[in-house]
Write a structure and sequence with these properties.
By secondary structure, the chain is an alpha+beta fold. The chain has 1 helix and 6 strands.
Length: about 170
C-alpha cells in the first residue's frame, strides 16, 4: 500500500526556513545599526573631551585674558591646539600646522561678553573686582573620521576693573 504524499510538509518547512532567514537578517541589520549609533556617540564624546581639554589649555594661560593681548572678536586669528597628544601643542598659525598625533582644535579669540561688579568685594580694600563672562568658539576636526564640530563655551572669571575689553566697567 502506497500512500499518496502531496508534499505539504516540505512546503511548510520551506516557508518556516524563509521566515527564520528573514528574522536572522533583520537581527543582523538591527545590530549593525546599533553599532553605528554607538560608534557615532563615542566619536561625539571624544570630540567634546578634546574641546574641553583645549578650553582648559586656553584658560590656564592668563595672557589670553590680558586686555593688552586680547584680540578683537572680529579677528580671524585662532589658536590651534593639538590635544590627546603628548604634550598638547599650541600654535597661532593653524593654516601651516597640522596635528601629527591627536585631534586638531581651533580656538577663536576669547571674547568678553559681560562684566558685572562682584558683590563680594573687599570692604577694606579700594580695588573693585568684576565677574567677567568670556565666550569661546572651538572647532574640532577629527582626522580619523573626518568629523567636524563647533562648540561654544562660556566661562566666568573674577578680574579687576577695566579688564573686559569693549565693555565699560
Amino acid at each position: 500500500m502506497r500512500s499518496r504524499q502531496s508534499g505539504t510538509t516540505l512546503l511548510v518547512a520551506l516557508i518556516m526556513l524563509v521566515m527564520l532567514t528573514l528574522f536572522a537578517i533583520s537581527a543582523i541589520r538591527t545590530g549593525n545599526i546599533g553599532l553605528r549609533i554607538v560608534g557615532n556617540q563615542q566619536q561625539q564624546k571624544f570630540m567634546e573631551a578634546a574641546a574641553q581639554e583645549a578650553i582648559e589649555q586656553v584658560v590656564s594661560n592668563l595672557g589670553n585674558f590680558d586686555p593688552v593681548n586680547v584680540i578683537a572678536a572680529s579677528s580671524t586669528v585662532v589658536q590651534r591646539i593639538c590635544v590627546n597628544g603628548q604634550p598638547p601643542v599650541i600654535t597661532t598659525n593653524p593654516s601651516t600646522t597640522s596635528c601629527t598625533s591627536g585631534t586638531a582644535v581651533d580656538v577663536s579669540p576669547a571674547r568678553c561678553i559681560s562684566s558685572v561688579r562682584s558683590q563680594y568685594d573687599s570692604l577694606t580694600q579700594p580695588m573693585a573686582t568684576y565677574d567677567n563672562v568670556w565666550e569661546f568658539t572651538l572647532t574640532v576636526n577629527d582626522s580619523v573620521s573626518g568629523a567636524k564640530a563647533v562648540y561654544h563655551q562660556g566661562i566666568k572669571m573674577r578680574m579687576l576693573s577695566s579688564s573686559c575689553p569693549g565693555i565699560s566697567s
